[in-house]
Amino acid sequence: MAKAQIITISGKPGSGKSSTADRVAEMLGFTRHSSGDFVRKFVKEKGMTLKEYNDHAMDNHSLDERVDEMLRELRDHSEIIIDSRLGFYWIPESFKVYLDLDMQVAAARIFKDAVSNIGRSKSGLAGSIGEVNNQVKQRMQNERLRFRRRYGVDPYNSEHFDLIVDTSRHSPETVALTVFDNYKKWLESENWSQVRSSVPMGYSFKNQY
Length: 209
What we know:
The chain is of the alpha/beta class. The protein has 9 helices and 6 strands. β5, α9 and β6 (195-197) form a beta-alpha-beta unit. α6 crosses α8.
């Protein structure tokens, strides 16, 4: 399969997909696209919370189909970065990145973001980190079920990806540099083996997510 100058970024909620896509796009001079932005815009227009949308999408696939169409159209482009749960599935020739992290860290980040971001604070998230943690786990379970039914694929299965970065103790800058460096190596390689990157326990970059 020919390699495309496209990076697709997926991963767990709160792992830093959007901020990583922004930074890597700036470093490479690529154009950034996000299915998450599309969904949030739609949810806002419809006056729904993100949880309500995810519950609704279990049986109504119209928005999934619109997102799918957007991703398929991007496959013909070059020098782009796509922040999307299923970008790796629709563009298999891309450099496929998965951002992982501990679920408690994810809940803390999402809670912090909801408190500081007015737009996201209205997305239906609960009022404590523990409640957010439960909601995130439920969201992931629903998405696993939804995408398995429709496509036969688990978006949270890291085996699909070329690079896995555990962002729990990485900084946004070091995550972006890790993606940048490995993307360059991937472009030049004839054979690529999956790479995993994490910061060892006991050493932490400043968390700025």
